Amino acid sequence: MATTLVVAASAVLLALLGVPVLLLVVRGGAAGLTLLGSDAELRRSLLLTGATATAATVVTVVLGTPLAWLLARGRMPGAAVVSAVLDLPLLIPHPVAGIALLLAFGRGSPAGGALERLGLAIVGSPLGIALAMLFVSAPLFVSGAREAIARVDERYESVARTLGDTPSRAAWRVTRPLAGRGLLAAAVVMWARAVSEFGAVVILTYNPKVVSVLSYDRFTSFGLGAVLPVAAVLVILALAPLVVLRSLKAQIAFGEP
Fold it and tell me: Percent of the chain beyond pLDDT 70?
């Protein structure tokens, strides 16, 4: 009886998660793939989304990996406060995140005004899109990277230091390669989350449109029929990072080099 209830509960949840996506792909998938060849706006939107998500991910990997190492090794002063700051963007509504970024980097703010004088506009620009994506998805990378680094025995770094390496050099030469697949998996998770962001992006940059904003725009302007192909092709393209992520996680679980 207990097993039957577990199976039934699992089936209900899987149906709630899977059936809407399946219906979307079935009803709009073929038309969406056709649109890739005929809809220039969709192609531009996809390229913009991929480019800004990649830029946000690269910046976060560069800045976030050292932070993840400090947190994993217990060398970050006020680690509890730092962790809370990192988790906060995951907990606040994303339009609120966009409003916070607008307050900090909008044209009327000191930082935004200074950037504009340097020719770096945040609002209504790809830079603003990348900033919004970074804000809401960087915590996912840092969290995943911290776990990947924590799985590497710190004694390996200690051995490297006895051979003359500095702590940072030991981390780069020893821990980074051993944690490499976990770091890559964390970067894939961040990239996928950045691609799907809507709330923070739409506050900072409605035009040019990323795919999430384009989907919303077509739905509000033309209705469900017009947005179905776009939404379906996004679901189909989302399978790529999922496949990469599952492959990486499987290799990590089995300890493949």
Answer: 94
